[in-house]
Amino acid sequence: MRATRRQRSASRSLSRSRRCLSTDSSSSDGRPPSLVRPDTGQQAMKAAAAATAARGSNKRRSTACYFRQLTDAVVVRVLSHLTSDELCVAGRTCHRWQRLMWHPHLWSSIVIRDRRIDLDRALEVLTNRLMQATPNVCHPSTEITFSCCDRLTDSGLALVAARCPELRQLTIIGCKTISNAAMYQLVTRCDVLERLNVTGCSAVSHLSPPDGDTASLQPGKQIYLTNLDMTDCYLLDDAGLKTIALHCQQLTRLYLRRCTRLTDVGVQHVAMNCCMLREISLCDCHRLTDFTLRELSKLGSNLRYLSMAKCEKVSDVGVEYIARHCAKLRYLNVRGCEAVSDHGLLTLADNCPRLRSLDIGKCDVTDAGVEALAQRCPALRKLSIRACGLVTDKGVILLAYYCRALLQLNIQECNLSADAYKTVKRFCKQCFIEHTNPAFY
User: In Å, how far are 19, 126, 190, 199, 252 from 158, measured between CA atoms?
Assistant: First the structure.
């Protein structure tokens, strides 16, 4: 039966071949049938090319079709992950993106980090476009961030103050061309401004009118800032800090890192007027002494975060003031304060049982101080004893045994053995250990 099928197939093929020969024999040019052959190779190549082109066009058509199926809400959600300068570039892609890029939701927060942009001109164009729906007022923008924008001047910031009255948060990092005059206009015209970060704006020294200006802050005038960060504003002095303390009495967070002109007098005004202060950082303010800590201790249970790192004049006396009056303290950083010893740690451990983070790197502490912390501060989550050469395996082992919820431990530049390291790993399962000992790897 199989042979019969094969014979039938062979006969069909033979009949097809004969029909092709009969067609070829009737060629119009009179050549012999054997010389007339159909150009099957070229036809196959053309057919393959056409099929490939069709598949490519179908693929492009299907991809474009998928994108067009996205709703405007989804596209706006995708665009919301771009910074403002990236959003302006994306708006040139197509008419739809050009339309959607001006959705109010996308401009509630303006973020520009490109130092090449002429920010004064960009802000003028941007605010003009955003004010089309609400003339003279740019309602959508409540948060603005400028980072490393060297071309931002007082003119651009004055434009923000005039056109963004609903501004609640402003961050300007590393803009050295901003002056006190622009800051004064900003804080007086943006009544609802709550957070101001001028880190690295070295020309800013206060929030009062510039010298020679007839305007002045009225004695009872309040600026409703709650967060103020003037890190690296090294021109800030006691007079400028006094003005801030008098007119920003609702401050809850104040960061003055590396403001080296400050003394105890300036911090005294802060402690007297900013009674709601919860966090304050005075790292690298070398002129501050224990008197600063005595004044800050008057904040009482409100104070939760205090950083005095690298303030060499701070000693056990200042730490004891804080420990006795700030029982709800959660974070303390006295790294590099070499006059802090076990005596201050014992008082801290007795009075601040809720302490969660402590940095005593390069302090004069021993196993006795670490043991007191371990036994009386069970909620401790982060501890740094970096370069504390008097701390041995005994103190670290006791710490691991009593503080089993420890999450981070810095033992760099400490003379510890592998046994201490293994003990911490055994009792503190989730603890991340920072060290410099190759034997621990």
Answer: 91, 14, 11, 19, 26
